[in-house]
Amino acid sequence: MVILASSICTKTGKALVSRQFVEMPRTRIEGLLASFPKLMTPGQQHTTVETETIRYVYQPIGEGMYAVLITSRQNNIVQDMDTLHLIARTVSDICDVADQQDVIMHGIDIISAFDEIISQGLRDNVDLSKLRTIMEMESHEEKIQEIIERNKEREAKQELKRKAKMFEQQRREAAKRGMDPNLGGIGSSGSMLSGGRISGVYEPLISREPEPSRSFAAASPAPSSAASFSSGARGMKLGRKPKGADVLGAMRDEVGLADNFANNLNISEQAAPVNAAPVVPALPPVDMKDVHVQIEEHITAIVNRDGGLEQMEVKGDMSLIISKPEYSSVQLSVTTDSSHNAQVKTHPKIDKKRFQAESVIALKDPSGSLPLSQPVGVLKWRIVSSDEESIPFTINCWPSPTGSGTVDVNIEYELTDTKLELEDVVVSIPIPAGVQPTISDVDGVYEVNRPRSTLDWQIPTVDTSNKNGSLDFSVPGDDAGAFFPVIVSFACKKSYYGVEVSSVTASDGQESVDFSQNIALIPEQYAVI
Question: For the stretch 273-294, what's the b/e string if a residue is b when 16 or more beta carbons lie within 10 angstroms of its beta carbon?
Protein backbone atom coordinates (compact mmCIF):
# COMPACT_ATOMS: atom_id res chain seq x y z
CA MET A 1 0.00 0.00 0.00
CA VAL A 2 2.32 2.68 -1.30
CA ILE A 3 2.16 5.68 -3.59
CA LEU A 4 3.45 4.61 -6.99
CA ALA A 5 4.08 8.05 -8.49
CA SER A 6 3.43 11.75 -8.05
CA SER A 7 3.04 13.83 -11.20
CA ILE A 8 2.07 17.17 -12.68
CA CYS A 9 0.42 16.68 -16.06
CA THR A 10 -1.68 18.57 -18.58
CA LYS A 11 -5.35 17.94 -19.19
CA THR A 12 -4.37 15.78 -22.18
CA GLY A 13 -2.19 13.55 -20.00
CA LYS A 14 1.22 14.91 -21.00
CA ALA A 15 3.66 14.63 -18.09
CA LEU A 16 5.37 17.89 -17.11
CA VAL A 17 7.02 16.66 -13.90
CA SER A 18 6.84 13.13 -12.49
CA ARG A 19 8.51 11.26 -9.65
CA GLN A 20 8.21 7.48 -9.36
CA PHE A 21 8.62 5.84 -5.95
CA VAL A 22 8.76 2.25 -7.22
CA GLU A 23 10.64 0.66 -10.11
CA MET A 24 8.74 1.78 -13.18
CA PRO A 25 9.98 2.49 -16.73
CA ARG A 26 9.34 5.86 -18.28
CA THR A 27 7.06 4.41 -20.93
CA ARG A 28 4.87 2.89 -18.21
CA ILE A 29 4.31 6.17 -16.33
CA GLU A 30 3.73 8.05 -19.59
CA GLY A 31 1.13 5.46 -20.58
CA LEU A 32 -0.64 5.72 -17.23
CA LEU A 33 -0.78 9.52 -17.40
CA ALA A 34 -1.93 9.43 -21.04
CA SER A 35 -4.88 7.19 -20.10
CA PHE A 36 -5.80 9.29 -17.04
CA PRO A 37 -7.85 12.02 -18.84
CA LYS A 38 -9.88 9.35 -20.68
CA LEU A 39 -11.09 7.93 -17.36
CA MET A 40 -12.43 11.25 -16.07
CA THR A 41 -16.16 11.94 -16.30
CA PRO A 42 -16.99 15.59 -17.16
CA GLY A 43 -18.86 17.44 -14.41
CA GLN A 44 -18.24 14.89 -11.64
CA GLN A 45 -17.56 16.06 -8.09
CA HIS A 46 -15.15 13.23 -7.28
CA THR A 47 -11.40 13.70 -7.56
CA THR A 48 -10.52 10.02 -7.93
CA VAL A 49 -10.78 7.51 -10.77
CA GLU A 50 -9.87 3.84 -10.69
CA THR A 51 -8.92 1.02 -13.00
CA GLU A 52 -8.68 -2.66 -12.17
CA THR A 53 -5.24 -2.26 -10.54
CA ILE A 54 -4.56 1.39 -9.72
CA ARG A 55 -6.24 4.53 -8.49
CA TYR A 56 -5.72 8.12 -9.69
CA VAL A 57 -6.15 10.82 -7.04
CA TYR A 58 -6.05 14.23 -8.70
CA GLN A 59 -6.62 17.94 -8.17
CA PRO A 60 -6.65 20.86 -10.64
CA ILE A 61 -3.78 23.23 -9.82
CA GLY A 62 -3.89 25.67 -12.69
CA GLU A 63 -5.23 26.26 -16.14
CA GLY A 64 -5.12 22.91 -17.92
CA MET A 65 -2.94 21.16 -15.29
CA TYR A 66 -3.50 18.50 -12.64
CA ALA A 67 -1.56 17.25 -9.65
CA VAL A 68 -1.95 13.46 -9.77
CA LEU A 69 -1.09 10.69 -7.32
CA ILE A 70 -1.00 7.18 -8.76
CA THR A 71 -1.62 4.66 -5.98
CA SER A 72 -2.76 1.09 -5.45
CA ARG A 73 -6.48 0.52 -4.87
CA GLN A 74 -5.80 -0.67 -1.32
CA ASN A 75 -4.38 2.70 -0.24
CA ASN A 76 -6.10 4.86 2.38
CA ILE A 77 -7.95 7.42 0.25
CA VAL A 78 -8.15 9.98 3.09
CA GLN A 79 -4.38 9.97 3.59
CA ASP A 80 -3.82 10.16 -0.15
CA MET A 81 -6.12 13.19 -0.40
CA ASP A 82 -4.23 14.92 2.41
CA THR A 83 -0.93 14.18 0.66
CA LEU A 84 -2.29 15.51 -2.63
CA HIS A 85 -3.45 18.77 -1.01
CA LEU A 86 0.01 19.30 0.46
CA ILE A 87 1.61 18.62 -2.94
CA ALA A 88 -0.74 21.08 -4.68
CA ARG A 89 0.00 23.84 -2.18
CA THR A 90 3.74 23.15 -2.39
CA VAL A 91 3.76 23.37 -6.19
CA SER A 92 1.85 26.66 -5.98
CA ASP A 93 4.51 28.00 -3.61
CA ILE A 94 7.41 26.94 -5.84
CA CYS A 95 6.19 28.19 -9.21
CA ASP A 96 3.42 29.91 -11.13
CA VAL A 97 0.85 27.17 -11.74
CA ALA A 98 -0.78 29.24 -14.47
CA ASP A 99 2.30 28.82 -16.68
CA GLN A 100 3.33 25.35 -17.84
CA GLN A 101 6.80 26.56 -18.82
CA ASP A 102 7.36 27.88 -15.29
CA VAL A 103 6.40 24.47 -13.90
CA ILE A 104 8.94 22.80 -16.20
CA MET A 105 11.63 25.38 -15.29
CA HIS A 106 11.16 24.56 -11.57
CA GLY A 107 11.00 20.80 -12.19
CA ILE A 108 14.03 19.99 -10.02
CA ASP A 109 12.62 21.97 -7.08
CA ILE A 110 9.24 20.27 -7.45
CA ILE A 111 10.81 16.79 -7.52
CA SER A 112 12.86 17.67 -4.44
CA ALA A 113 9.64 18.68 -2.69
CA PHE A 114 8.03 15.38 -3.75
CA ASP A 115 10.95 13.51 -2.16
CA GLU A 116 10.51 15.41 1.10
CA ILE A 117 6.77 14.68 1.23
CA ILE A 118 6.94 11.04 0.12
CA SER A 119 9.75 8.67 1.02
CA GLN A 120 9.86 5.22 -0.61
CA GLY A 121 6.19 5.52 -1.45
CA LEU A 122 5.08 6.45 2.09
CA ARG A 123 4.01 9.88 3.35
CA ASP A 124 6.52 11.58 5.67
CA ASN A 125 5.39 13.51 8.72
CA VAL A 126 5.80 17.01 7.28
CA ASP A 127 3.51 19.98 6.93
CA LEU A 128 3.78 23.00 4.64
CA SER A 129 5.70 25.11 7.15
CA LYS A 130 8.27 22.40 7.80
CA LEU A 131 8.55 21.70 4.07
CA ARG A 132 9.29 25.36 3.36
CA THR A 133 12.00 25.24 5.98
CA ILE A 134 13.56 22.15 4.41
CA MET A 135 13.42 23.58 0.89
CA GLU A 136 15.05 26.84 1.99
CA MET A 137 17.92 25.12 3.82
CA GLU A 138 21.35 25.84 2.42
CA SER A 139 23.86 23.17 1.52
CA HIS A 140 26.05 22.15 4.46
CA GLU A 141 29.09 21.60 2.24
CA GLU A 142 28.50 24.92 0.50
CA LYS A 143 28.49 26.76 3.84
CA ILE A 144 31.71 25.00 4.85
CA GLN A 145 33.30 25.95 1.53
CA GLU A 146 32.29 29.57 2.10
CA ILE A 147 33.88 29.45 5.55
CA ILE A 148 37.08 28.05 4.03
CA GLU A 149 37.20 30.78 1.39
CA ARG A 150 36.60 33.51 3.97
CA ASN A 151 39.37 32.18 6.16
CA LYS A 152 41.75 31.91 3.22
CA GLU A 153 41.06 35.56 2.41
CA ARG A 154 41.55 36.53 6.05
CA GLU A 155 44.83 34.62 6.23
CA ALA A 156 46.04 36.23 3.02
CA LYS A 157 45.28 39.70 4.41
CA GLN A 158 47.06 38.90 7.67
CA GLU A 159 50.05 37.57 5.74
CA LEU A 160 50.23 40.75 3.67
CA LYS A 161 50.10 42.91 6.80
CA ARG A 162 52.81 40.82 8.44
CA LYS A 163 55.07 41.05 5.39
CA ALA A 164 54.56 44.80 5.13
CA LYS A 165 55.45 45.17 8.79
CA MET A 166 58.60 43.08 8.39
CA PHE A 167 59.72 44.98 5.30
CA GLU A 168 59.22 48.26 7.12
CA GLN A 169 61.21 46.96 10.08
CA GLN A 170 63.99 45.80 7.73
CA ARG A 171 64.20 49.21 6.06
CA ARG A 172 64.43 50.95 9.43
CA GLU A 173 67.25 48.65 10.55
CA ALA A 174 69.06 49.15 7.25
CA ALA A 175 68.80 52.92 7.68
CA LYS A 176 70.28 52.68 11.20
CA ARG A 177 73.32 50.85 9.81
CA GLY A 178 73.89 53.55 7.20
CA MET A 179 72.78 51.39 4.27
CA ASP A 180 70.51 52.27 1.42
CA PRO A 181 67.00 51.34 2.63
CA ASN A 182 65.84 50.90 -0.98
CA LEU A 183 67.98 47.77 -1.21
CA GLY A 184 65.59 46.29 1.31
CA GLY A 185 67.83 44.00 3.43
CA ILE A 186 71.10 43.48 5.24
CA GLY A 187 72.02 40.64 2.89
CA SER A 188 72.42 43.11 0.01
CA SER A 189 75.64 44.50 1.58
CA GLY A 190 77.29 41.08 1.56
CA SER A 191 77.38 40.83 5.36
CA MET A 192 74.95 37.91 5.83
CA LEU A 193 76.45 34.47 6.37
CA SER A 194 74.95 31.63 4.36
CA GLY A 195 76.47 28.15 4.70
CA GLY A 196 79.86 29.57 5.77
CA ARG A 197 80.17 31.84 2.69
CA ILE A 198 79.49 35.52 2.21
CA SER A 199 76.17 35.84 0.39
CA GLY A 200 75.41 38.76 -1.85
CA VAL A 201 71.86 37.60 -2.37
CA TYR A 202 69.07 39.65 -0.86
CA GLU A 203 67.42 37.72 1.99
CA PRO A 204 64.83 39.76 3.89
CA LEU A 205 64.37 39.37 7.63
CA ILE A 206 60.94 37.89 7.04
CA SER A 207 62.62 34.76 5.71
CA ARG A 208 64.12 34.12 9.18
CA GLU A 209 60.87 34.42 11.15
CA PRO A 210 59.21 31.20 12.32
CA GLU A 211 55.91 30.33 10.67
CA PRO A 212 53.12 32.02 12.66
CA SER A 213 50.42 29.97 14.40
CA ARG A 214 47.25 29.72 12.30
CA SER A 215 44.67 30.94 14.74
CA PHE A 216 42.16 33.71 15.01
CA ALA A 217 43.47 35.08 18.30
CA ALA A 218 45.12 38.48 18.47
CA ALA A 219 48.57 38.37 16.86
CA SER A 220 51.54 38.21 19.23
CA PRO A 221 54.16 40.97 19.05
CA ALA A 222 56.73 40.63 16.27
CA PRO A 223 60.01 39.00 17.37
CA SER A 224 63.09 41.15 17.75
CA SER A 225 65.67 41.34 15.01
CA ALA A 226 68.13 39.45 17.20
CA ALA A 227 65.77 36.57 17.54
CA SER A 228 65.31 36.48 13.77
CA PHE A 229 69.00 35.53 13.38
CA SER A 230 68.98 32.73 15.97
CA SER A 231 70.64 29.52 14.91
CA GLY A 232 67.49 27.48 15.50
CA ALA A 233 65.38 29.68 13.18
CA ARG A 234 64.07 28.24 10.00
CA GLY A 235 63.83 29.97 6.62
CA MET A 236 60.44 30.65 5.13
CA LYS A 237 59.46 28.32 2.33
CA LEU A 238 57.83 30.35 -0.41
CA GLY A 239 54.71 28.79 -1.81
CA ARG A 240 54.18 26.65 1.27
CA LYS A 241 50.55 25.82 1.89
CA PRO A 242 49.15 27.14 5.17
CA LYS A 243 47.64 24.63 7.52
CA GLY A 244 44.06 23.96 6.56
CA ALA A 245 44.49 24.97 2.89
CA ASP A 246 43.75 21.44 1.73
CA VAL A 247 41.25 20.80 4.53
CA LEU A 248 38.30 20.13 2.24
CA GLY A 249 40.17 17.37 0.44
CA ALA A 250 40.90 15.68 3.76
CA MET A 251 37.27 15.78 4.88
CA ARG A 252 34.97 13.20 3.35
CA ASP A 253 32.37 12.47 5.98
CA GLU A 254 29.64 15.08 6.00
CA VAL A 255 28.83 14.45 9.65
CA GLY A 256 32.25 15.57 10.87
CA LEU A 257 32.84 18.19 8.18
CA ALA A 258 32.57 21.32 10.33
CA ASP A 259 34.49 19.89 13.31
CA ASN A 260 37.38 18.60 11.16
CA PHE A 261 37.63 21.96 9.44
CA ALA A 262 37.79 23.79 12.77
CA ASN A 263 40.46 21.41 14.10
CA ASN A 264 42.66 21.75 10.99
CA LEU A 265 42.55 25.52 11.30
CA ASN A 266 43.41 25.31 15.02
CA ILE A 267 40.16 27.00 15.97
CA SER A 268 39.18 26.54 19.61
CA GLU A 269 35.48 27.01 20.02
CA GLN A 270 33.03 25.39 22.43
CA ALA A 271 29.31 26.03 22.31
CA ALA A 272 27.51 26.81 25.54
CA PRO A 273 25.47 23.85 26.80
CA VAL A 274 21.95 24.99 26.10
CA ASN A 275 18.76 23.40 24.95
CA ALA A 276 18.78 24.28 21.29
CA ALA A 277 15.56 25.47 19.71
CA PRO A 278 14.82 24.84 16.04
CA VAL A 279 15.90 27.61 13.73
CA VAL A 280 12.59 27.71 11.89
CA PRO A 281 9.92 26.17 14.11
CA ALA A 282 6.82 24.48 12.77
CA LEU A 283 3.37 24.90 14.25
CA PRO A 284 1.68 21.77 15.58
CA PRO A 285 -0.96 20.09 13.41
CA VAL A 286 -4.61 20.98 13.92
CA ASP A 287 -7.47 18.52 14.29
CA MET A 288 -9.46 19.26 11.14
CA LYS A 289 -13.23 19.24 11.32
CA ASP A 290 -15.69 18.99 8.43
CA VAL A 291 -15.27 22.74 7.90
CA HIS A 292 -11.66 23.81 8.24
CA VAL A 293 -10.23 27.30 7.79
CA GLN A 294 -6.54 27.81 7.06
CA ILE A 295 -5.21 31.36 7.53
CA GLU A 296 -1.60 31.93 6.55
CA GLU A 297 0.41 35.14 6.40
CA HIS A 298 3.96 35.72 5.16
CA ILE A 299 5.74 38.77 6.53
CA THR A 300 8.80 40.49 5.07
CA ALA A 301 10.49 43.12 7.22
CA ILE A 302 13.92 44.52 6.27
CA VAL A 303 15.36 47.18 8.58
CA ASN A 304 18.74 48.86 8.18
CA ARG A 305 21.20 48.96 11.08
CA ASP A 306 20.33 52.61 11.77
CA GLY A 307 16.70 51.69 12.43
CA GLY A 308 15.24 52.87 9.11
CA LEU A 309 12.62 50.68 7.44
CA GLU A 310 13.75 49.38 4.05
CA GLN A 311 10.82 47.06 3.27
CA MET A 312 7.67 45.96 5.08
CA GLU A 313 5.10 43.69 3.44
CA VAL A 314 2.54 41.17 4.64
CA LYS A 315 0.78 38.77 2.28
CA GLY A 316 -2.03 36.60 3.56
CA ASP A 317 -4.64 34.20 2.32
CA MET A 318 -7.58 32.31 3.75
CA SER A 319 -8.40 28.83 2.45
CA LEU A 320 -11.51 26.80 3.15
CA ILE A 321 -11.65 22.99 3.13
CA ILE A 322 -15.12 21.40 3.10
CA SER A 323 -15.38 17.66 3.77
CA LYS A 324 -19.16 17.09 3.54
CA PRO A 325 -21.59 18.16 0.79
CA GLU A 326 -24.10 19.65 3.26
CA TYR A 327 -21.51 22.27 4.24
CA SER A 328 -20.52 23.28 0.70
CA SER A 329 -22.26 26.67 0.93
CA VAL A 330 -21.53 27.78 4.48
CA GLN A 331 -21.06 31.39 5.54
CA LEU A 332 -18.07 32.67 7.51
CA SER A 333 -18.11 35.65 9.87
CA VAL A 334 -14.65 37.25 9.81
CA THR A 335 -12.96 39.79 12.08
CA THR A 336 -10.01 41.96 10.98
CA ASP A 337 -7.89 44.81 12.32
CA SER A 338 -9.18 47.93 10.57
CA SER A 339 -6.11 49.96 11.66
CA HIS A 340 -4.07 48.34 8.89
CA ASN A 341 -4.53 49.73 5.40
CA ALA A 342 -4.85 46.38 3.64
CA GLN A 343 -5.63 45.58 0.01
CA VAL A 344 -8.24 42.81 0.13
CA LYS A 345 -9.42 40.52 -2.67
CA THR A 346 -12.16 37.89 -2.55
CA HIS A 347 -12.73 34.81 -4.69
CA PRO A 348 -14.86 35.55 -7.79
CA LYS A 349 -17.65 33.32 -6.41
CA ILE A 350 -17.71 35.22 -3.09
CA ASP A 351 -20.10 38.14 -2.52
CA LYS A 352 -17.59 40.97 -2.25
CA LYS A 353 -20.13 43.68 -1.39
CA ARG A 354 -21.48 41.66 1.51
CA PHE A 355 -17.99 41.04 2.79
CA GLN A 356 -17.17 44.76 2.69
CA ALA A 357 -20.43 45.67 4.45
CA GLU A 358 -20.82 42.81 6.97
CA SER A 359 -17.41 41.01 7.02
CA VAL A 360 -19.20 37.82 5.96
CA ILE A 361 -17.77 35.42 3.40
CA ALA A 362 -20.66 33.89 1.47
CA LEU A 363 -21.34 32.71 -2.09
CA LYS A 364 -22.90 35.13 -4.55
CA ASP A 365 -25.23 32.36 -5.70
CA PRO A 366 -27.01 30.83 -2.66
CA SER A 367 -27.66 27.66 -4.67
CA GLY A 368 -23.98 27.26 -5.55
CA SER A 369 -21.41 25.17 -3.73
CA LEU A 370 -17.68 25.00 -3.11
CA PRO A 371 -15.52 22.05 -4.20
CA LEU A 372 -15.16 19.28 -1.62
CA SER A 373 -12.03 17.92 0.07
CA GLN A 374 -9.65 20.48 -1.38
CA PRO A 375 -8.44 23.89 -0.20
CA VAL A 376 -10.24 26.80 -1.86
CA GLY A 377 -8.80 30.28 -1.47
CA VAL A 378 -11.67 32.59 -0.52
CA LEU A 379 -9.79 35.68 0.66
CA LYS A 380 -6.41 37.33 0.03
CA TRP A 381 -4.87 40.47 1.47
CA ARG A 382 -1.68 42.50 1.20
CA ILE A 383 -0.26 45.13 3.53
CA VAL A 384 2.62 47.40 2.51
CA SER A 385 3.94 50.00 4.91
CA SER A 386 6.78 52.51 5.11
CA ASP A 387 6.03 53.40 8.74
CA GLU A 388 8.63 52.11 11.20
CA GLU A 389 5.88 51.81 13.85
CA SER A 390 4.23 49.06 11.79
CA ILE A 391 7.03 46.55 12.50
CA PRO A 392 5.58 44.04 15.00
CA PHE A 393 8.93 42.86 16.43
CA THR A 394 11.98 45.12 16.43
CA ILE A 395 15.68 44.28 16.83
CA ASN A 396 18.38 46.82 17.72
CA CYS A 397 21.99 45.71 17.27
CA TRP A 398 24.78 47.94 18.67
CA PRO A 399 28.34 46.70 18.02
CA SER A 400 30.98 48.94 19.64
CA PRO A 401 34.72 48.39 18.99
CA THR A 402 36.66 48.89 22.23
CA GLY A 403 39.94 49.82 20.57
CA SER A 404 41.75 46.96 22.31
CA GLY A 405 41.06 44.24 19.75
CA THR A 406 37.51 43.32 20.84
CA VAL A 407 33.98 44.39 19.95
CA ASP A 408 31.19 44.70 22.53
CA VAL A 409 27.78 43.89 21.05
CA ASN A 410 24.42 44.76 22.62
CA ILE A 411 21.23 43.43 21.03
CA GLU A 412 17.73 44.28 22.22
CA TYR A 413 14.30 43.10 21.08
CA GLU A 414 10.88 44.63 21.61
CA LEU A 415 7.41 43.30 20.78
CA THR A 416 5.66 46.41 19.49
CA ASP A 417 2.49 44.63 18.34
CA THR A 418 1.26 43.29 21.68
CA LYS A 419 -1.66 41.34 20.20
CA LEU A 420 0.87 38.86 18.77
CA GLU A 421 2.45 36.00 20.71
CA LEU A 422 5.71 34.75 19.23
CA GLU A 423 7.07 31.31 20.02
CA ASP A 424 10.49 29.72 19.47
CA VAL A 425 12.10 33.03 18.52
CA VAL A 426 15.65 32.70 17.16
CA VAL A 427 17.82 35.76 16.48
CA SER A 428 20.94 34.77 14.50
CA ILE A 429 23.87 37.19 14.74
CA PRO A 430 26.92 36.63 12.46
CA ILE A 431 30.22 36.39 14.33
CA PRO A 432 33.81 36.02 13.06
CA ALA A 433 34.60 32.42 12.19
CA GLY A 434 36.42 30.44 14.82
CA VAL A 435 35.83 32.71 17.81
CA GLN A 436 34.05 31.94 21.08
CA PRO A 437 31.89 34.90 22.20
CA THR A 438 31.97 35.94 25.84
CA ILE A 439 28.39 36.34 27.07
CA SER A 440 27.90 38.87 29.84
CA ASP A 441 24.08 39.04 29.96
CA VAL A 442 21.31 37.17 28.16
CA ASP A 443 17.53 36.92 28.41
CA GLY A 444 16.81 33.39 27.23
CA VAL A 445 19.46 30.96 25.98
CA TYR A 446 22.10 30.99 23.25
CA GLU A 447 24.04 28.61 21.04
CA VAL A 448 27.14 29.03 18.89
CA ASN A 449 26.40 27.65 15.42
CA ARG A 450 29.84 26.67 14.14
CA PRO A 451 28.99 25.73 10.53
CA ARG A 452 27.10 28.99 9.93
CA SER A 453 29.40 31.18 12.09
CA THR A 454 26.46 32.66 13.98
CA LEU A 455 25.43 33.21 17.59
CA ASP A 456 21.82 32.02 17.84
CA TRP A 457 19.88 33.82 20.58
CA GLN A 458 16.79 31.79 21.48
CA ILE A 459 13.73 33.08 23.33
CA PRO A 460 11.00 30.45 23.92
CA THR A 461 8.10 32.94 24.14
CA VAL A 462 7.70 36.65 23.46
CA ASP A 463 4.37 38.17 24.57
CA THR A 464 3.06 41.02 26.71
CA SER A 465 4.71 39.56 29.81
CA ASN A 466 8.08 39.23 28.06
CA LYS A 467 8.04 41.87 25.35
CA ASN A 468 11.57 43.19 25.99
CA GLY A 469 14.92 41.46 26.28
CA SER A 470 18.62 41.91 25.62
CA LEU A 471 21.84 40.04 24.89
CA ASP A 472 25.33 41.38 25.64
CA PHE A 473 28.50 39.70 24.41
CA SER A 474 31.99 40.48 23.20
CA VAL A 475 34.24 38.86 20.58
CA PRO A 476 37.75 39.51 19.27
CA GLY A 477 37.85 41.84 16.27
CA ASP A 478 37.44 45.46 15.23
CA ASP A 479 34.83 45.39 12.42
CA ALA A 480 31.41 46.60 13.59
CA GLY A 481 29.85 45.63 10.26
CA ALA A 482 30.69 41.95 10.72
CA PHE A 483 27.58 41.42 12.89
CA PHE A 484 25.07 42.03 10.10
CA PRO A 485 22.69 40.90 8.75
CA VAL A 486 20.80 39.80 11.86
CA ILE A 487 18.20 37.18 10.87
CA VAL A 488 15.01 36.56 12.89
CA SER A 489 12.73 33.51 12.79
CA PHE A 490 9.70 32.64 14.90
CA ALA A 491 6.36 30.85 15.00
CA CYS A 492 3.10 32.69 15.61
CA LYS A 493 -0.50 31.46 15.82
CA LYS A 494 -2.06 34.89 15.34
CA SER A 495 -2.54 37.05 12.27
CA TYR A 496 -0.78 40.38 11.79
CA TYR A 497 -3.92 41.68 10.03
CA GLY A 498 -6.02 40.27 12.88
CA VAL A 499 -7.94 37.95 10.55
CA GLU A 500 -9.98 35.33 12.39
CA VAL A 501 -13.17 33.42 11.74
CA SER A 502 -15.53 34.05 14.65
CA SER A 503 -18.37 31.77 13.53
CA VAL A 504 -19.58 29.56 10.67
CA THR A 505 -23.25 29.15 9.79
CA ALA A 506 -25.26 27.26 7.21
CA SER A 507 -26.28 28.94 3.95
CA ASP A 508 -29.48 30.27 5.55
CA GLY A 509 -27.42 32.00 8.24
CA GLN A 510 -29.34 30.34 11.08
CA GLU A 511 -27.76 26.99 11.97
CA SER A 512 -24.32 27.14 13.56
CA VAL A 513 -21.69 24.81 12.09
CA ASP A 514 -18.76 23.35 14.04
CA PHE A 515 -15.43 24.29 12.45
CA SER A 516 -11.68 24.31 13.03
CA GLN A 517 -9.13 26.89 12.00
CA ASN A 518 -5.36 27.16 11.86
CA ILE A 519 -3.60 30.54 11.85
CA ALA A 520 0.10 30.97 11.06
CA LEU A 521 2.26 34.08 10.70
CA ILE A 522 5.46 33.04 8.94
CA PRO A 523 8.56 35.28 8.62
CA GLU A 524 9.52 35.14 4.94
CA GLN A 525 12.40 37.59 5.38
CA TYR A 526 12.95 39.26 8.72
CA ALA A 527 16.35 40.90 9.04
CA VAL A 528 18.43 43.85 10.14
CA ILE A 529 20.96 44.63 7.41
Answer: eeeebebbbbbeebebbebbbb
